[in-house]
Amino acid sequence: MSQPPYFLGLPMWSNRDWLGGLFPRNTSSKDFLSHYSNAFNTVEGNTTFYALPSQETVAGWKSQLNPGFRFCFKLPKEVTHTGQLYNSDVLEQFFERLDVLKDSLGPFMIQLPASFGPSRFTELERFLRSLPEHYCYAVEVRHPAFFAKGNEERYLNRLLMELAVDRVCFDSRSLFSRPARNEAERDAQAKKPRLPVHAIATGQRPLIRFIGLGDMACDEQYLVPWKHKLREWVSEGKQPYFFMHSPSNREVPFLAESFHDSFQDLPEWYPLNIDSQTDQLDIF
Questions:
Q1: Can you identify the CATH homologous superfamily of domain 7-277?
Q2: Model confidence over 20-42: pLDDT tens digits?
Q3: The whole model's pTM is what?
């Protein structure tokens, strides 16, 4: 299968709510990744934020992948949060364990806590310069100073550009565009950051995490500018990564398919055909 000029995926590959939609109804959970990678060409690897997978687990992932697929794993929280960018033993083991997937690795995501502000620039620069150069990375900041368009943000962006490290673009505008209507939305609004959206590419693989409501009538107005931005980045020779979330993530395979259908004129585009893989659940 050809490779489109961007990567599109979801925040996970394993969700039983996708049985009868993205997955055939009787699919075993051990085969979820195989079916997922038949449709999407990337996925967020949130599992590594909490625990390091076993060698057997990683080998199992590798055996299920389609060519061209990319994982975007998060660095362990023992490094980015509790380890304060210093836990070298954990980080060394992390890269060693995942290296078997080296042909299927997109940017590693370095998600920093909201408390990580400009006073810690020196730590961030030291850490980024110490990372293995044969991988690529994307940094997600959440401190308000990095969104104020002042010297702190300019310094951050210059550093990332110098090192060819991408800055994660986090967009939760749709999620907060109306009061929560159910428990899943209330939980998402309580946990997800609400920050300005700065659509900037500091490297060659801009990475967008779009947190919608799972309702295209609400999400579409916030997705339209991203469609234009992805086209702009592709025309510049960049390879964007776009991840679509919703409070329950139940609907996101179909919403992502609709987003993908907007790019049919781009080279190497192909349909995801999620709806035709099996009987779609009545989720809308």
A1: Protein of unknown function UPF0759 (3.20.20.410)
A2: 989 999 999 999 999 999 999 99
A3: 0.94
